[in-house]
Amino acid sequence: MQLVATQGKSGRELGHSRSLVLGNSGPAFYTFLTMSLADQLGFRFAPPERRVWTVRALVAAVRTHVEREYTDAWVEGEISNFRAPDSGHLYFTLKDGNAQIRVVMFSSKARLLRFRPADGMQVIVRGRVTIYEDRGELQIAAEYLE
Q1: Each residue of 10-47: pLDDT tens digit?
Q2: In whole angstroms, how far apart are CA 45 and each of 36, 39, 41, 48, 68?
């Protein structure tokens, strides 16, 4: 920052500067010339580049982030919309009073269950939170159900 003394009755001589009167020392005004942040730090800030995503790329990036963050989630709720097609996979919605999430349990895990899930059951699901990319929907890939 540079300190410049100017003579005059006001600090308006330097239109883009800020002026500051130090004490009652007569007509002298001391003006601090303002410097840009870039000059002060020695480098320039560039605005972020505009990035246009394809839908698939955005969903895949979010899926990667979600799967890294929520690898082992235990979630409690009520089963609704239960389906068990011939493939052996189980599909249902887990809900509570405020929200819902889809759950898939693949046949390799479903075969290990000691009970048959049904609509209205209160359960705890253990699994990996993921995103089903084809629909961009958050879901749980269940490993265990109690």
Answers
A1: 444 444 444 444 455 444 444 444 455 555 667 777 78
A2: 11, 10, 10, 9, 31
Q: No. of H helices and E strands in the chain? A: 3, 8
- CA 114 – CA 64 distance, rounded (Å): 32
E strand or H helix at 110, and its extent?
A: helix 107-110
Q: Which stretches does DSSP call E strand in 1-135?
A: 2-7, 18-20, 28-33, 73-83, 90-95, 100-105, 122-132
pTM above 0.70, yes or no: no
Distance between CA 73 and CA 135 in Å, rounded?
A: 22
87 close to 111: Cβ distance less than 8 angstroms: no
Tokens of 55: 């839908």
pLDDT for position 4: 47
